[in-house]
Write a structure and sequence with these properties.
Distance between the termini: 87 Å
Order of helices and strands: HEEEEEEEEEE
Radius of gyration: 23 Å
Strand content: over 45%
Number of strands: 10
Largest sheet: 10 strands, mixed
Number of helices: 1
Shape: globular
Helix content: 10-25%
Amino acid sequence: MKTMLKCSNVRAAIAAGFLLLGACQGKQREPTVEAVWVRLPAASGQPGAAYFRLEGNIEGTRLTSITSPLVRRIELHETVEKNGVTRMEKRKEVEFPSRGALEFGPGGRHAMLFGINKAVKAGGTIPLTFSFNTAPPVTVDAEIRTPSGEPHSGH
């Protein structure tokens, strides 16, 4: 009888191990940041804007901040309309879906870049680091565009 109990316990432990191993192999991937670009300000000293696309990974993932060594401060913003008035509202963080994507684009969600280094020019790139509450930071090189949002023409 003791031998049967020991065998039963061993089988249960092995089965539990396989379940845990399977869970590890099914690990959800980290968030992805794609199509990242920065619009330079039309006037020197004014803020620029960053636009991008986030793909989720884990339910409840939130973008908590964006930083760059070439920008003094970056704020997350969302354009909202209330009572016929459109305005930008600062967001401390932005939650995005675990499946599907969240777009940050002109006229909607975006990041405002304050104090852009004068060396940043259209046609180049700028590193942006995206931080999340459930995943390690992701750093990408964002394409720098003119104030009109067009890629640099090379002139």
